[in-house]
Amino acid sequence: MKKHNFSAGPCILPQSVMQKASEAVINFNNSNLSLIEISHRSNDFVEVMENARSLSLELLGLQNKGYKALFLQGGASMEFLMVAFNLLEKKAAYLNTGTWSNKAMKEAKLLGELVEVGSSKDKNFNYIPKNYSIPADVDYFHCTSNNTIFGTQLNEFPNTTTLKVCDMSSDIFSRQLDFSQFDLIYAGAQKNMGPAGTTLVIIKEEILGKVSRTIPSMLDYQVHLNKDSMFNTPAVFPVYVSMLTLEWLKNLGGISEIEKINNKKAEILYAEIDRNPLFTGFVPNIEDRSKMNATFNLIDTSLSNRFNQLWNEAGINGLNGHRSVGGYRASMYNALPIESVDILIEVMKRLEQKA
Amino acid sequence: MKKHNFSAGPCILPQSVMQKASEAVINFNNSNLSLIEISHRSNDFVEVMENARSLSLELLGLQNKGYKALFLQGGASMEFLMVAFNLLEKKAAYLNTGTWSNKAMKEAKLLGELVEVGSSKDKNFNYIPKNYSIPADVDYFHCTSNNTIFGTQLNEFPNTTTLKVCDMSSDIFSRQLDFSQFDLIYAGAQKNMGPAGTTLVIIKEEILGKVSRTIPSMLDYQVHLNKDSMFNTPAVFPVYVSMLTLEWLKNLGGISEIEKINNKKAEILYAEIDRNPLFTGFVPNIEDRSKMNATFNLIDTSLSNRFNQLWNEAGINGLNGHRSVGGYRASMYNALPIESVDILIEVMKRLEQKA
Fold it and tell me: Structural domain of residue B272, as residue ranges?
């Protein structure tokens, strides 16, 4: 039975990518060797790493603008720490939009003073704080562009002269932005880019080398840049699958094309959430709703069992909300076909008819 | 053409493991979902992680002895730092057997005083230092059990009351040892365990919590232990393939069985290196030679082209030595069949006949 995979991450990837990845585990580039048994210093793999790095910059429109891309390990959680190690001399400004921002702040606090410039904690993070101001004397401003757990997404980024750092783990490559407004972007691969196990970091190289502390090698962006993202053995398979997914996106027409599809998917699902009298959206402000993760609840929770049965029977997977929000979360990452959203909407309508 | 893969790492894994891994990328556990598109919190993946953790302890004979296993990210290079963050309060003792020991020392030095208790640097690390003594006041002793680049291996470990930490990246699960003599063992997966992208860490839990510094979350072993190695999204595919490889080893009869095969492979190859008048072993002391990585040189380097052509024609891959040693390196990890070593020996004999 065909599955409709709404998992929040690790999540759906393009079928053609899975197929190629599966083949490469047996026979990579017609070498009669597996991708996972060759040296990471072999020409074949160095080419994979270089393709993945340059495709990332190309898709974001950041080629020839002083940026470099790295594929590191440790997920966004490691970047929470590395950002501070590399950029935080005295003070940094953080926008608090939920769980991931909080975790980022927790690690940065070990290395300097933090200013929380805005927070939506008062309403369990169901909106994006606005009209906050960033102190002039901070080393950088940090925000999380999309909040998987609460289903909110930043559409406006502050106009500031300070360095701008953004955790884009869950919406990178999903929508057009002026990415050159950011000095550092990081993203765990396991949403729109690839399998868990690698993290994309995009850095404007000129921002490095300004802090006075000695940075341990593995936490030092400059060390990784100096070795073209091969300071130590990279996560070969996750990097390869990321490269395949970036190629898929480029062939599709890039971010501008996938954004149209993503907008359509979000539009029809939120329309049903708002129309269907059985459901309510978790995020009231329409402009703060995430196009990646739609969070919604049943108004009458006694219908839960019936709804759960219906979507399970329809082959839908990964629809349960995060424990801190409850209800449902439909994650609609780049590779999720619009047909899967259609099926979910049908199931919601069917519940209404039966209720 | 069948390949004989002597790569130093990432390296050969069992064919049956590659087959299962390839299938899981398309359809994992008959779920009609790919291994790499499901939640790491799903029951199916939690089971993988728990199997991998318990198989590691079981194969090393460390179950019910106060040890726990973690599958982290960042390779041994990250452990160089984490070991010091978690265990180094004032002073630590390191045995210097080459490149990897040096890198481990470089990171630890940032956090405390280091005593190099022995070194084979005087002879480009072609032997294992012996008869060194470990100061009584150190927090721990650190060594590298096998040195891939130079082809040396520790057969004796010091009898000391201090904590013993060992980097076993390149020979874990290859030979029987009293593993309970160690308090912390770490190993990048990409030799005898799995693909690049995950690192096994085995810790005697009671040794943690003794340093006064605040440890960042991602560098804190206790944080990872408290979350059963799922503090953040693990490297799903590398952990799964590691689990498959550990299952393969268990089904084969465990370390005692693979050790017999490894001994045989090393025995016949070193016999040929010593017998064949065209070659010389890089490591003169027989007791210091690695059973994982045999390093050897042509005495007359004008035969290089002919030798390279012969082994390439035989389907042999990954035989070039590391740039800091030169010559040849035959890595004979667990999954390398003895037939591949036979082929290499034939090629060496053929060169002799033609020379």
Answer: 254-354
